[in-house]
Amino acid sequence: MKTAFISIDVGTKSLRTALVTPKGQILRTSVLPIHTWRSAGIMEQSSEDIFQAMMNSLKALLSEQTETVTVLGIGVDTTASQVFLTESLQPLLLPPNNKANILGWFDHRAIKQSEKINQLLPEMIGSPFKKQIPEMVIPKLLWLQETYPDVWNQCGCILDLYDFLTWKLTGRLTRSPHSLFNPELSLPCHKLGIFLEHKVQGLMLPAISAIPGGLSDEIAEELGLSAGLVVATGVVDGCAGSLTVLGAKLNEENSLGQRLSMIVGTSSIYISTSKSAIADDAIWGPVPSVIEGLNHNIVGQSAVGALIDYIIESHPAYNELMALTKTKGKHYSSILEQRLLSIAGNTEDIPLLTRNIHVLPYFAGNRTPLMDMSLKGMISGLTMDSSLDNLALIYLATIQGLALEARQNLETLTKLDFEIRELFPSGGLTKNKLFMQVHLDVLGLPASMPKEADSMLLGGALFASVASGYYKPEQAIKAFSATDRALFPNQNLRDYYGKKYEVFLELYHDQIKYRRIMQNADTKKAD
Question: Is the pTM of this model over 0.85?
Answer without folding.
Answer: yes
